[in-house]
Amino acid sequence: MRIIKTIPTVSLQKAVFKLLSKGQSNKVYGQVPETVVYPYITIESMTAKPLDTKNSIQWNCSLTVNVWGTEEGRQDVYEAVSDITYLISKYGVEKVVVDGFAVLDAQIDMIETFPEQTTGYHGLVQINYQLSDKEE
Fold first, then answer.
1. Could you read off the pLDDT of 8-36 as tens digits, one per residue?
2. Which of 77, 99, 105, 130 fits 69 for a cystine, CB–CB 3.0-4.6 Å?
3. Cα(73)–Cα(40) distance, rounded to whole angstroms?
């Protein structure tokens, strides 16, 4: 196994945050303030699994994008999930620049929408990225 000098989680999250912030109209938060306008988007859980190949370390990364809305704003959540899906499927490779890594692929793994007991309506988009260390 090669020595892993850095992991892509922070850089990937920042790159996806930037794409979503510029590519659609809902606010994207890293840290949600106490007062918000619905719907809004957060990037939550992320996993990264290294795979040592002959020439580099490749990373299979998965991140979850959440859309939070009110019960009355169910359609807004659906539209935001649709916008996220479009942005990732169209620009997820070419416009997502992950510092220190080459973006090889981006795929939508799962989409889910459902009522929340306390906050209204919730949407999830699970995104899988395949990255490779850039040669130094």
1. 999 999 999 999 999 999 999 999 999 99
2. 77
3. 11
List 47's β-bridge partners, or say none. Answer: 62
Summarize the confidence of residues 36-62 as an average pLDDT. 93
- pLDDT bucket at 1, cuts 50 / 70 / 90: low
* Tokens, residue 131: 């990255």
Q: Tokens 């916008």 identify what position?
A: 83
Q: Cα–Cα distance between 40 and 124 in angstroms, integer? A: 12
> How far apart, in whole angstroms, are the C-alpha atoms of residue 30 and residue 109?
22
Please identify, in words, the CATH class of the domain defined by 9-133: alpha beta
Backbone angles phi, psi at 77, to 5 degrees: -65, -45
Helix (H) or strand (E) holding 49: strand 40-52
DSSP 8-state code for residue 89: H
pTM for this structure?
A: 0.93
